[in-house]
Amino acid sequence: MIASFFLVGAILAPLFSFALLALLRFRKARIGLQWLVSYLGAMFAWLCLFGLRFFLPHELAMWRWQPQNLFPLSPALLADGFSWPIGLILVSVGGAVLLTEATTQAEERVFGWAGNLLLVGLGLSAIFAGNQLTLLLAWAATDLVELAIWLSRPAQAQLRERVILAFSSRAFAVMLSLWGFGNPWAYVVSILLRWGVFPFHLPYLESPDLRRGLGTIIRIVPPLTTIPLLARFADLATFSSLEWIRLILGVIALLALIQWVLSADVFESRPFWIIGVASFAFYAAVLGRPEAVLAWGGVLAVCGSFLFLTQVRDRFWLLTFGFVVMLLLGLPFTPFWDLVRIYPRRWSMETLFWMLSHFLLIVGAGRFFLQKPKGAIEGEPWTQFLHRFALIGLIGSVLIVGYGGWRSVLETALSRPYTQGRSWLEYFIGFGLMGMSLLMALMLRWRSLPSLRLSERWRRWFSMEWLYGFLRWAFRQVGILYQQFEAVLEGRGGILWAIVFTFVLARVFLFFREGQ
Amino acid sequence: MNAPILWILLPLVFAVGLLLIARWQRLCRAVGSAFALLLTASALLLPVGEIVQLGIVSFEIQPSWVVLGRRFVIDELDRPYVLLIYLVVTFWFIGSLSQTTSLLFIPLGMALGGTLIAAIFIKPFYYGAILLLFAALLNIVWFVSDENALDLGIKRYWIFQTLAMPLLVLAGWLIGGTEANPGDIPAAALIYGLLLLGFSLLLSNVPFQSWLPAVAQRVKPYSFSLTIFLTPFTALVFVLTFLRQASWLLSSPWIVLFFSIQGFLMVILGGIGAIYHRHIGRWMGYALMKEIGLSLLLIGLGIGLSDPRPFFAMLFMQIVPRGLALALGGFAANLYAEQGKGLGLQQLVGIGRHYPVATLGYFLAVLTLVGFPLLASFPVHLTLWQAWFQRFPPFAFAAIFGSVGVLIGGLRSLAVLVRTVDPMQASNLESRPQKLLILVGSVLLLLMGVFPQWFLFPFYQMGLAFFR
Fold first, then answer.
1. Which of A19, A296, B202, B262 could disulfide-link to A280, CB 3.0 to 4.6 Å?
2. Where in the sequence is the domain holding B174, given as residue range(s)?
């Protein structure tokens, strides 16, 4: 009963808070009160999730869809070792966004708080989805909120076109995942589409107005909701037969992380971070390492939030920087040490390939952390305090997840005991990557390396604009063809053409029938 | 009291009466809505073939009525269909209270309801084809009254429906003869030929679907949404009634092949057409093509099974969300048409900002027609996609493609509707009743999608009873 209260409370608190916020906005209440309501909602959700830790695993059937012969699944929630850590991290990121958003001067910050609460609430329902049906419903709800956010903003026609394309590809992903039972590749495509691998995070690349708070959560929620699912697949070794995914994931990770390193600023690079890190999580799922999936999921949300939310560079910044680097490297005994479990005992080209991607991830993170932030916190001292409090809260949540019984939490979901033994590589790979990164930094400092800038031609190639150009052309050609076909049928000779097509169709029927 | 007289003759006579007061539009709509509501209530509450006690009055509603040697039979288990038809008519009529519609909307809508019920319950069954042609003629009068001209698309609709009637009547007559001797192969081949061609024409299947977007572009969307919703649904039920007359037809691989391939083609063509549309009316036409295709795929799943009833019953479950979505979409489009110069996308830039609630309704209608999760038609789409994935994945992909096509088309319209021209000038032009109706419809769509056990399951049970 208490566990159900915590589980439902965690999901509903941000949603109720959103509803209350909308009401307060309608009644033109003071902005401080609006912020307080938002923050209390997030805080309550966090407390519920913290309480839920002591009742894992917990399953909650909500209501039964009927007729049961047509709908074998009904909405249900499941809190276990795969969903709880990601859920807590998401709420912490949401809370951090609320705190840092309060310090911005943007006029539309209430809009940001509302969007943040909705996305966190719906993201939690996807993370704690107890079955495929619940996951689809939650994914769909998240997509709808995202679409509403995009369409409600003034934008150019081209951006709207991209928003439509991105939403449609997500809808296709949702529908395709229905084939997932017994067809793991359907899930592969579905998850990749959900991340925005194709079309490559189209709307997000040209959205300068969505920069920090809401812009961060809107990008983090969709991939984060796939992490518990990936962990379950990893546990069941669902992808073990699909060797070819490793190659695709490797290419996606490398391309994304090259772009990540080469991007001009941290906001431009955000989609590449998401896709790059999420590829590591997927790779871990293919290897059948659920603990690594969760660790990479944590890195995706936590390190990403630090990178995208930090607005000042002060003494406190050094602590944050050190913490992020430590998490990213996967140093021994750090909260997300399990992320290095993707590196097997024996060396291979594949290991080197992924190490290179990992290295690029760290280089990019270091680069953006050292860049002078474009924004700055202005105003009263409390704004500084809130900003720091947000980051401390995030660090605290990571410590709770990492040191608050990582293994025992995981074992509530794992189908086999948690693997305690580690290869020597897992102890040293983090240090190796750190050494390589320092060397690279020093070489750049001494100008021993050529500039990281790519030529315009390569840049265009990596941006995949050539592919989209081709697809746009193909889209128009198909449209022209279809319109001609339609003009024939709707024109004056339409009935004659209908008779001709009837004969063709009859022949097709006969052909199929003859072939049984 | 007699069920066919109550639910067929009385509405037809009343439709003539409504025609006489059609000039006084408000009165006509109010009276029509009230009468439709009464018919719905009677279909819901009055059992057929049982004695009904109303205070001191007791009476029995007889199931059968004989006219010119033909019988109309509405049994107790047929009531769900009657209820569904009048529920839809009532819903549209109530919606028309806050809309500008043509003078003939109410009288023709009432007559259409009565005719479509008659088409299903006439014996011998194949006379239903003649009544369906009569319903098509009513539709044509409706379309012409909306447009004040006989468009090429309307003519085509007329021709196709007229051609369907003799083919089906002849096929029905032949089925009666072959049933005694199913091994009569030459006659069976003729029956198949007549039947499949007749079905294609009646159900506006490929290549006879071209009238749908063409008419949708010309006619007022609200009235069009009622006709294109009711007529194809009844045609589908009629086709199933036809097939159930001979058991060898229901298990025939030709019939399975017909429904599956036609369903495949319809969802594909509907999807492609919707992607490239430049007119909201046409988009509705394509969306309906996709929906007809989906119904055909649903029937294709059922035919050949030892108990096809669950899939046939799903037609009843599918029809409610579709009807609500078309009503909402048509309602919103009618409002846009009143404000703008037409329903072409270029004429609708930013209009959605004057009608925020209608645009919300339109958006939910788009998502419902697509089968998007959380919306009313998702449970039906879910079952259909999963069943086809198990049986023959290309058809499932086609169904998904059709949905995504309709989604892209709908979102393209939406993006144009909400495009900001000058946010300061965006005044709200919706009246309170309009907002209320759209909000009720929208909430229903959401509730049906999340709680199908409360809102859709009863219709499934009605379907099971009807296809007993």
1. A296
2. 124-466
